[in-house]
Amino acid sequence: MNYVIPAPATPVIPVAGSDAVFPVRRIFCIGRNYAEHAKEMGAVADRAQPMFFCKPADAIVAGDEVEVRYPPATQDLHHEVEMVVALARGGSDIAAEHALEHVFGYGVGLDLTRRDLQAAAKAKGHPWDAAKAFDHSAPVSALHPAAAIGHPTGARLTLHVNDALRQDADIATMIFPVAAIVHELSKLWTLAPGDLIYTGTPAGVAALARGDRFVARLGDVATLRGRIF
Predict the structure, then answer these.
(1) pTM confidence score
(2) Mean pLDDT in runs of 10 for the chain (229 residues)?
(3) Which of 42, 63, 70, 78 has its CA 20 to 30 A from that of 91?
């Protein structure tokens, strides 16, 4: 194919236990999927209809140990630890009872947020893109195939920053579990292989500074270590 400019590289995530990589197509995120996090943000979780937003695929920083650049235009960068779901199959109007058949595997990641920009956008009724969809805003661990680990429904999701525990919850307390998220997303978009889903964060979000080190864990499934520079 005769591109007029060099074609951009496809963002990829390593697959644990192999030399294979997972190509990322899109990143979907769900907001307010843990009631206590919604409460700490001054909101009420909607248990009938999930709230979605997106990040660009090249926002990922992938691996089990990562270096994450502190973004410009903010004085209040926040961490949000999340279970990450990678899809191997797509489709639209996917039935919830078949949704897990579309999942390739699982990891743990951070939905980094320029909280001051988000607050300003909320106050004006503006979109959140500048607060959520910036470079390096989606660190993620290696993916662990569901074929090897199954589909976790109860696992402790934690984040330590500089050895201090910041966030701690069980994914069983998500308002919308993975199957429901896939089902709801597929009513709005035609999902495809390579799509990632960040499944929401529990309470305890707080600021990160340059030099901070973090460890995100999804039970015994996945671990992500990193540093903010």
Answers:
(1) 0.97
(2) 95 97 98 91 86 98 97 98 98 98 98 98 96 98 98 97 98 98 98 98 98 98 98
(3) 63
